[in-house]
Amino acid sequence: MCGLGDKDRRQISPPPFVKVSPFDITTGRPLDSTSIELSQLVLVVELWSPDETQDLTLNQNIQNVVDGDHLNNSTKHSNQPVSSDSEESMGDVPTRNLIGSTVLNAFSLLNDRHEQGIWFILGDLSVRIEGEFKLKLNLLDLSTDRSISAFSNTFKVYSAKKFPGVVDSMPLGRVFASQGVKIPIRREMRD
Fold first, then answer.
1. Residues 82 and 130 reside in one and the same domain
2. What is the tally of structural domains in the chain?
3. pLDDT string in tens for the chain (191-residue length)
4. 17 CB neighbour count, 10 Å cutoff
5. Residue 10 lies inside a defined structural domain of this protein
6. Which helix H or strand E contains 64, and what residues bound it?
7. Under 8 Å CB-to-CB from 148, ≥6 apart: which residues?
8. Same domain flag for 72 and 156
9. Which helix H or strand E contains 173, and what residues bound it?
10. Is residue 78 located within the same domain as residue 140?
11. What family does the database annotate (predicted)?
């Protein structure tokens, strides 16, 4: 979990990896992943409730603080939010609950069994609010204008006080990091 500032960001750990298994839409047979144009594949990530009914990517409850130049002289130096009933109010300004790289390009990588595949690495995602969530993964093929969506498993975001500790890096993450992918990796594995 992280707060509203960018300095206290704590990324989802371990970082999620998404494997794409392409297939021929008419025959249903798998396609060779090396024949796919990776620049045409984009993954868009959203934050959702565990029951998959609510998009929680944006938080609509944080009110904008209006710049002093827009206020009259009596309130010019005030840092208080302007009420939404006021003429000067800009209304609620949405903030992002899911921050980091939410739009990603694909990588062609070898997995831990030395098999070539198409992967999306979600190594720079943070959630600003505590609770249980799912990620909605929207895969777009820009060459065909087709898209497909899926949800991750449920994961839990802790407050700083309740945080149980960093999870060890996964072996697959170490393999991807050795191929040049920027992933936060723990230097030593715990026993």
1. no
2. 2
3. 455 555 556 788 889 999 999 988 899 999 998 889 999 999 999 999 999 999 999 986 544 333 433 333 333 333 344 444 444 444 567 789 999 999 999 999 999 999 999 999 999 999 999 999 999 999 999 999 999 999 999 999 988 888 887 777 889 999 999 999 988 777 655 55
4. 20
5. no
6. none
7. 138, 139
8. no
9. helix 171-178
10. no
11. Belongs to the velvet family. VelB subfamily.
Task: Give CA–CA dist 103/36, Å, rounded.
Answer: 19
> What is the rounded distance in angstroms from the CA atom of residue 73 to the CA atom of residue 39?
53
Residue 133 and residue 70 in one domain: no
- For CA atoms 113, 119, 125, 129, the dihedral sign is negative
pLDDT at 8: 59
CB burial of 60-71 (b: ≥16 within 10 Å; e: otherwise) equals eeeeeebeeeee
Residues in a beta bridge with 116: 110
| pLDDT at 65 (0 to 100) | 39
Owning domain of residue 80: 64-96
DSSP 23-50: B-TTT-PBPPGGGS-GGGEEEEEEEE-T
Q: Under a CB-based contact definition with an 8 Å cutoff, are residues 154 and 127 in contact? A: no
Q: Are strands 125-127 and 98-100 parallel, antiparallel or unpaired?
A: antiparallel
- Pair 177, 112: CB distance under 8 Å: no
How is residue 159 written in tokens?
């407050």
Instruction: Say if residue 82 is in the same domain as residue 122.
Output: no
